[in-house]
Amino acid sequence: MNGRIIPSKNMNRFKDFFAEIVNEESGFAEIDDKEGWLEEDNWFVVDKENGRRGICLPAIYHDGEINWRWR
To answer: Are strands 59-60 and 65-67 parallel, antiparallel or unpaired?
Structure first.
């Protein structure tokens, strides 16, 4: 799935994290995940009709595009 993300004010703390994940040349390794942000239970999307639904770790790009897979 893909779409446009409407970030909350808490999104700023993830900005560098997502920049590293979507940059194939960054050298990011899962060992760098000190905060546990790669754990699938931490990721979901929310919409007005269906509420909260779990997703796999999304790819979020600097232009606001988000790509994800349902869990």
So the answer is: antiparallel
Summarised one tens digit per residue, pLDDT across range 5-60 is 888 888 888 888 888 888 878 776 665 666 777 888 888 888 889 899 999 989 99
Q: Is 4 helix (H, G, I), strand (E, B) or coil?
A: strand
Tell me if residue 23 falls in helix, strand or coil. coil
Cβ distance 30 to 39 under 8 Å?
Answer: no
Q: How many CB atoms lie within 10 A of CB 55?
A: 16
> Distance between the two ends of the chain, CA-based, in angstroms?
12
SS3 55: strand
